Amino acid sequence: MRLAAVLLLCPTAGRLLAQEPLETKLVVEQGGREIGREEFTLVKGRGQGAPGNSLKAAARYPADNPTLKLAATLEQTPEGALAKFQLEVDGPNGTTVILAAGSGARLIIRTVAKGSEAGRELPGGPDIMLLDEQVFSLYCAVADQATPAGKALTAVFPRTNRRASFVARRESGGEGGNIRVMLTGGINGTLVTDARGRLFRLELPETGTVVSRAKD
Q1: C-alpha closest to that of 131 among 47, 45, 72
Q2: How many domains in the chain?
Q3: Which pLDDT tens digit goes with each residue over 78-136?
């Protein structure tokens, strides 16, 4: 019942999220050319004062006069388990809202677009990471799960139905308390977060994508 309530009550939140001032700004480049910008805020705590972490993000492609805008919310429990996921996509074909919630070994995803609604159930569990090909701050959650020995994780991309198994291996701390994480397997790349767990840099060589902190 709680899972159903989460899926039913969330659809309007993305429009509000897109209007909020967000703390950290990112530049998204592909093949050495800027293709978009992203902003996000990562804070302790969840809705209604529950413990855990909350990430709110807004991305636009391109940065000026965007034809695609995305707003995401990710809430996790103190153990890193999924509590809430919402992704609102505003593009040339209209607006789509994707909602996900976990219940034990189940992951339930609901997609709502103009004139249509669909739901699906996937294998869940504590090692599931909900990601998106154009909202890169969601990788903050991957860094939290990484271990020095390497943590086996499964990424689910709800918007494209992509699923990828990969390993996140945490390396020793870098300059200024930054943490470096190597990603291998179905996702290959390098992830760097700052001392507060916020995405600092992400390199995904297979797609030529580099995400870095904006200088302005």
Answers
A1: 72
A2: 1
A3: 887 888 999 999 999 899 999 998 767 889 999 998 888 898 898 888 899 999 999 99
Residue type for position 143: A
Alpha-carbon distance of 162 to 156, in angstroms, equals 6
Q: What is the DSSP string of 90-144?
A: EETTEEEEEEEEEETTEEEEEEEETTEEEEEEEE--TTEEE--TT-GGGGHHHHH
Question: Nearest 5 degrees, angle CA 113-CA 117-CA 122?
Answer: 115
> Residue 82's closest CA among 173, 155, 186?
155
Whole-angstrom distance, CA of residue 138 vs CA of residue 130: 7
- Could you identify the residue written with the tokens 């797609």? 207
- pTM of the full structure: 0.88
Please say if the pLDDT value at position 46 is more than 80: yes
Given a cut of 90, whether residue 17 has pLDDT beyond it is no
Residue 156 DSSP SS3: strand
| Segments forming the whole domain that contains residue 47 | 2-213
